[in-house]
Fold:
Amino acid sequence: MNKILISDDSVFMRKMLKDLLSGKNYELVEADSGAKTLEQFEKERPDVVLLDIVMPEGEEEGVRVLGEIMKMNPQAKVVMITAVGQDAVVEECKKLGAQDYIVKPFDDKEVLEVIGKYVS
Amino acid sequence: MNKRLQEIHEEACVHISAAFTKLSGRKTIVNIANPKITEVKELSPFIDADEIVAGVYLPVTGETKGAALLILPKETAFNLCDFLLKREIGTTQELTGMDESALKEAGNIFCGTYFTTLANELKIKIIEHLPEFSFERFGGILTELITKCAAGAEKTLVVEIEFMFTELVLQGYFVLLLEKKQIEHIIGSLEKKEPLV
Structure:
């Protein structure tokens, strides 16, 4: 079973993603901060990370965390969670190694398609 | 109404409506109406100072500096929570952590979408910062707003908002706070000949 790490400080957004992904044969783990994300990434070894750009530590904490994840595992599959108007940050994340991105609020079909590309 | 500002609001409404339809899983139409330019300290006539409201505050920098504030009276906030969390209308009687998170996210999306529309129309770069949420007397939110704005954002653009769901129409306010010279520049750059109201 593929494991997905949902990293977003919004408990509501984590719930939306969990509700969408439950019952789709994924094991789900969560993190609500940059520090917790790195802790969970090391402990849980997820197949895919859904990583919000904005975290309690700062507006681009997700970019920093992405950099740390790629150092830990250059093969990591990270999908950034972004808001409308964050195109420049998304491009920066892709250069750092993020595979893809999804935009809030989520289009359910699009989220499943994006994740589907990166799981076995 | 200033024709270009109306066009910006209509476009923002299209995007915000689509966003709230996705968030709530229900067809949602958002309307923005009755824009007014007013001083920050004169916002009190719009909402009673003792009325309990949910407020989402989104500061911005970049080529303009200021913030947006989405104000939802308590009843609107509770009903919106029911829609966002797919509960029966009337379920929410007080806000839990999940409810606050839902409202904060909804407010962030509302304000962020408005700024993106404004930025695209005016071809300026706007950088959004961390949103803040509060649920308290409007007077308290207003006092904090005046303090935050002491450095320069004296003028505000206030509009009324409607969230139209099949079952209910919810009402609130959206306040755009910018430095006086910025708001005059924005309004001035839209259409010099037409007054705002």
User: Anything to note?
Assistant: The interface with chain B takes residues 10-13, 15, 54, 56, 58-59, 83-85, 104-107 of chain A (CB under 8 Å).
